[in-house]
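QUALITY CONTROL LOG
STEP: pairwise intake check
CHECKER ROLE: data steward
CRITERIA: each record must contain a sequence immediately followed by its structure tokens, with no blank fields

ENTRY 1 OF 2
RESULT FIELD BELOW
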Amino acid sequence: MPAFVLILWPLYIIVQVVVAGYLLQPFFLLILYWIGKRKGLEPGLTPRVTSTRQHQFGIIIAVHGETDFIPPILDSLLRQTYPFFNVYVVADACNIDHLHYTDPRIHLLAPVFPLNSQIASLEYGFRHFQDSDEICVIFDPDNLVHPVFLEVLNIWYNAGYLAVQGNLKAKNQEGLYSRIDGLSMQLANFVDRTSRSTFGLSVNIWGCGISVHRKIYEKIVYDEKSFTGGFDKHMQAELALKVPRIGFAADAIVYDEKVDDGHNFEQQRIRWISAYFKFLGKAFQVLWTGLKTRNINRTIFGFNLIRPPWFLLLFTGLMIFISGFFINQLIPEVWLLVLAIFTLSFLTIISRNTHHSTLLKTIGFIPVAIFRQIRALFKSGVGRKTLLKTRHSKVMYIEEILANSPSEP
């Protein structure tokens, strides 16, 4: 047998084991989730506490260039049932002369010189915190916040948590790409948050709706890579090493706008894919720290941070399936089963919160979305050097969302 075959064959087997392990993860998590539900375990359940302390929240909203979304998110924050907060809107390269708020909790900040960076905007807002601000909360300008968001978070911090992720839901799902984006979010929510929180493990964070105690946030030092996007990748790795557990507050709901056209979808994926590769080293650091300290929570968290994007796992699995016909007939048979189990698990997860008619209209176009992401993969080098901005257009107010979601807390 040639030497190069002796080298490549073990690598081929290792790739198969790793990729299959990730693709089968949703299936095993579904089983564990159902077992947990039968035993009375609830994901993201608001903890019971005896303390009634009222924490002061400092909320940062980094805005660049556009101001249309500032009134809706501020309106949703001013409707909070919990009154102890300050909002710091960092309006970078924006004209905010037409915005006027008399509520002393609203602080409109206009940097003298353009910052042109989300990290720089976040740090600018953080430097303007009042001494009383204890918890840092980060939102995107296109977000809308449920009225009980801060009230729920206060309970989690009274339970001793130092970092808590809110529950992201789609603000809009009228268009094809927004529906596909919403399905992707549902899979991520279940695998990375709902299922793990059921068993008391740290959850992945989003770039918005994340809250961190001030004493922890002050210790996070962003590197140069973060200035071109993906600050949340850096932050979640740091949080995994600095706090015992990152909580998931299922009742603290944030509504996030889903991209609604192919170009923006691709731009967003370029940014996400480049962020994954930029901070892969941090993910391995978390995994190694967990293994070295025998910390199961950090080990599982690091293992999941290393996981490639789902489309890349599926594409690799499909290539292994095809290559198996030329190597060993058992390989395509096994991989047909793996891909079928993943597909069934995916459909089970997304059908939990999606109307069947909408689901049937959307899943047929998922291959188009995968193709867009493969194109984004080959362009991901751009995202490592330049901050790519996703354009949003769905200006909505929280009243519209709540009118269509009467069953939510």
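ENTRY 2 OF 2
RESULT FIELD BELOW
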Amino acid sequence: MFFVRTRFSILLLVLEFSSSFSYIKSYGALHRRRSHSTLFLEMSSTSAAQDLLYQDQQAAMERRALQEQKLLSTKKVKELKAPKLKIPAPKSGTGFGGGASTKKSSMSAMQRLASEQAKIVHREGVIRINQALSSDQSDKLREYILEQQSLASIETAKDLSISKAFYGVENQRKNRCDLQLSLLQGGFAADNGGDTSSTDSHVLADVLQQLLGKDGTLGSLFENLVTMEGEFYELASVITNPGSPRQIVHPDLPHKKIAPLYVIFLALQDVNEFMGPTTFLLRTHTIKENDIFNDHSQKDQQLATADSRLATLKKGDAVLFDARILHCGNANDADKGFDRALFNFSFRNPKVQGSLGYAGSIRSGYTGAMTLRDMSEVLVAYGEGDNDAFAKYGDGISR
């Protein structure tokens, strides 16, 4: 839950202008006679009032975030470490009709490891996976994403109204953006059928192959958590720059009994304590912890006693988390920090129907378009030499 404190005067100002425009709508004949310049000034004033309101909300959240930082610091925050897991040996079957034992005996080593990882996610709400992506591919993806960010900046400078094609929920926050990615080779250069003849590699497809392909480091884990019918729900990069403020503690979506969404943050460079690593509050993805979090009389005590972990990561390391868990991004220090890029994607649990109360950070044209099964099939085709395997999904821009 976000704590937003607004100045009453600003709220009155917004209401005053809202009321003014309702009056114009109701008595259009009278007000159409007023000059365009007068209406423009009124609209500009309304926009200014909304900007002030937004700035006031952000300032209030920054104050609350600092207060929460002190509460979490009452206990030493430990580093989130990858668990030391041994791949369980296959269990022998029990003859004809062996049932579950026979099924387990046929599981691959990757599937057996994924089963153990999933147990940790269910229990703790988050797991760290070291070297999910190779160092070489992490470097290539970081370079590619920063190039995409530059292209997005150029296009939105021409026409701010198209910013939603490039950015998700983080677009307006200071020194922080949520860059939605294209599945096409060439990325944003391929938007609207653009010329990508000079593009000789498909960086994003290569990365997804390593993560979700046949021998991918994360594919079996997602299959365990959401099945092959899990919806590909997000595709973006969270980028913070020095000066980005700390977030307030929050879950990503309203609580549901069954885990609705599992999210990946993958570091494209080392992430140290000055670069705004994410803090996770272990085992806070339950209904009990959610109820406490929403009770203002208990919330501060919950934070002060939380078993929290700091996700300082090495390049290529990933954290996979249940979107219900309480967490927050820390400040990217203005002096000691560095540009931090995380590759971000998620899969939705098909067991949870209806709205999640959270719009995924993904280009609107990709919403509901792919499942984990679809992704796996496309990556098989890509691995067999079809460089245009993702082309059928287009650039993701709704028209």
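INTAKE CHECK: passed for both entries
DESCRIPTIVE NOTE, ENTRY 2: Strands lie at 78-79, 126-129, 176-180, 231-240, 261-267, 278-281, 308-310, 318-322, 327-329, 340-348.
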